[in-house]
Write a structure and sequence with these properties.
The chain is of the alpha+beta class and 150 residues long. Helices cover 40% and strands 40% of the residues. The chain has helices at residues 2-45, 49-55, 72-80, and strands spanning 56-63, 69-71, 87-98, 101-112, 121-134, 137-147. A six-stranded mixed beta sheet has the order 2-1-6-5-4-3. Strand 3 (87-98) and strand 4 form a beta hairpin. Helix 1 runs antiparallel to helix 2. Keywords: Signal. It holds the Pfam family DUF4440.
């Protein structure tokens, strides 16, 4: 009976170690995704297309709040044309990991200042951003935003 318990204990110990490593990796990935969510929004605010290309995959696609689908190339052309996106405050409510995919969901507020207006118009949205792990870092592959009243 004692001979049978040693392999069992070793298996339990190994499984516990694997679970601990996975939990630490998820915590590290969670922090990295939160950092990147702030970073890419700041790059968008600064119209920094060079930095955005490093964060977005070649296949990056957006289903925007106006119900239009735009590719990475289309968005970069809009930025290069001088368009300035409004400031956005994003509240991440959940990050879910599935292997090398991270799904970020939450709420955001866009602040639009029209010419001559003193205060910004606030547009509320729900969003989903999808990240994929490539070359040991996370890249934004897709985004969806939906206007809401809340």
């Amino acid at each position: 009976m004692r001979k049978n318990i040693l392999p069992f204990l070793l298996t339990v110990l190994l499984m516990s170690a694997i679970n601990l490593v996975q939990a630490q990796q998820h915590a590290s990935d969670d922090l990295r995704i939160r950092e990147l969510e702030k970073t890419w929004t700041a790059f968008l605010d600064k119209n920094d297309t060079t930095a955005l290309k490093k964060i977005w995959t070649e296949e990056y696609v957006v289903n925007n709040a106006n119900g239009k689908i735009a590719t990475r190339k289309q968005i970069l052309n809009i930025l290069k044309g001088g368009h300035v996106f409004s400031k956005v405050d994003r509240n991440i409510e959940r990050i879910t990991f599935n292997g090398d995919i991270a799904i970020v969901m939450g709420a955001e507020t866009e602040f639009q200042n029209a010419a001559g207006e003193k205060s910004a118009k606030q547009l509320k949205r729900r969003f989903t951003n999808i990240w994929v792990k490539k070359d040991n870092d996370w890249k934004l592959v897709a985004r969806q935003a939906t206007p809401v009243n809340f």
